[in-house]
Protein: Histidine-specific methyltransferase EgtD
Organism: Aquisphaera giovannonii
Amino acid sequence: MSVSAFHEAPSQGLLIDSSPSLPNIMHLLEPRNSREHVEAFAAAVRAGLSREPKTLPFEYFYDDEGSRLFEAICKLPEYYVTRTEDAILRRHAPDMVKCLRRADGPLGEPTLVELGSGSAVKTRRLLAAALKRCGRLDYVPIDVSASALEESAGQLARKFPGLGITGYVADYRRGLERIMATAAGPRLIVFLGSSLGNYTMEGASDLLSMIGGLMGESDRLLLGTDMAKDAPLLEAAYDDSMGVTAAFNLNLLHRMNRELAADFRPDGFRHRAVYRPDRGRVEMHLVSLRDQSVQIPAARIAVRFREGETIHTESSHKYTLGMLAELRGAAGFVEESAWTDHRGWFRLQLWRRAG
Ligand code: TRP
C-alpha cells in the first residue's frame, strides 16, 4: 500500500498533506483476453441469443469503447439525466455527505465508495463537500472499465490533495465485499446516474439487498434514480439525433465480433428505443434489418434473425415514488432524506438499513 507507507515516513505533516497520494488500482476481474472472461461472455451470449425474444446482458456494454461512448452520451443535449442530477448535487452535496465525520483516533479516514464511477465528474461535487467537512477522505471507486477508472483516479488525485484513492476494477459484489471488510465506518456508498434503472425490479432489489447486507448502522447509501416523465422526452434521451446512443448500443455487436470472433454485420441492425410506461421503463433494442444468420464461434452457436426481429439489449427504469417505496421495503432500507430538481425529473435519496 503506497499510501500508508507514505504516511509513516518520518517527515513533517505539512509536506505530506500538500502532496497528492498516488491512486492504488486493484484488479479483481479476469483480464479481458483471459479464458475465464471469454467463456463467461460466450455463455451469457449463448443463453441470451438462444432465448425468444432474444436478449443480451447489459453489463457487457461497458468495455473501454462502450465506456467512452457512454461519456459522450452524458454530454448530449437530449440526455437530460446527467445534467439534471449534477444540478441537484451542486446544490445539495454538503447535506448529502453529513454522515461522514472527521476521523479521530486510529480508525482510518471517512470513506466514500462509488459503484460504477465511470469518469466520476459528478462525484467531484460530493468529494469537494466531504473534504471540506472532514479534511481527509478515502475515495474507493468500483468500475468494470480499467481505463475509465485509471484515468479518473489520476485526475482526481491531482485535483484533490487530501484524497486517498483506491480504485477497484471489479463487479459490484466482489468490489464491495472486499472494501466493506477493510474500510472503517462510517462509509457513504454512492450509486449515481440511472444505473440502478438498468436492472429489472427484481435484480435491483437483489442488488440493493446485497449492498444493505454489507452496510453497518452508521453507513449510508446515496442512490440516484430517474423518474417517470413524458414519452417524447424519454425517447429522445435514448435515441439522440447524432446517433451516439445508437453507436453505444451497436458496440455490443462489435464487441462480440472482437472478443468472440462473431461475424455480425452492424449495418444489418438498427437501434430502437421505446418507452413502456406499463412496464415503467425505456427499452433498448437492436432490430434486424433483414433475414440473416450470424456465426459466433467462441459461443459455439449460429443465430438466425428474421427481418424486424429484435435483441432486447437494455432497459432503463423510470421510477414512480411507489416503485421506489417497493424497492426500499423489499431491500430493507429506510429513507433519511431525498432531493430532487424543480421539475421532479431526477431524485437522489439517502437510505440507511432498517432496524
Ligand atoms: N444508465 C444509463 C441509463 O439508463 C445507460 C444508458 C444511457 C443506455 N443510454 C443508453 C443504455 C442507451 C443502453 C442504450 O440512462
Observations:
- The chain has two domains: 21-27+72-229+322-353, 35-71+231-317.
- The first helix runs from residue 2 to 8.
- The two ends are 36 Å apart (CA to CA).
- The chain is about 40% helix and 25% strand.
